[in-house]
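(Structure overview)
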Amino acid sequence: MLKRIIPALAALLMACVGNTECRLDDPRSCSSGLVCEHVRGKDIPQCFAPVQVEGKVFDLLSGQPVAGAEVTALDINGTAVAGVAVSGVDGHYALPIPTERSDSEGTPVGKRVTLRAAARNPPMSRAMGQDIGARAPRAP
């Protein structure tokens, strides 16, 4: 009898808690607000809170926020590593960065990226700057 109860309890627990395994090619395989990432040394990726770069794009001469700027993250070869974030009316943006994880707890593996901001509606004769903050939350 006990041999039947334990697997049933395990299945119920998985149904209630959810499976953290996911498919890298299916962004819907994780719960809302989570992303599917590769875990170093594991064959199966897992769902984690996203690693993202947040900041503000502003005009270097006036200090005013730049709305509608496209912000991209580039690797050391100049290749885009993520999608494009568009700054809001206050100049703020949040850009999720796909990041390999070092363990099943979701600890991000460090990587260096360069951010590039470009005006969506040229001409823009003034230089733009970025006040950048990075946040890498842990999965709950």
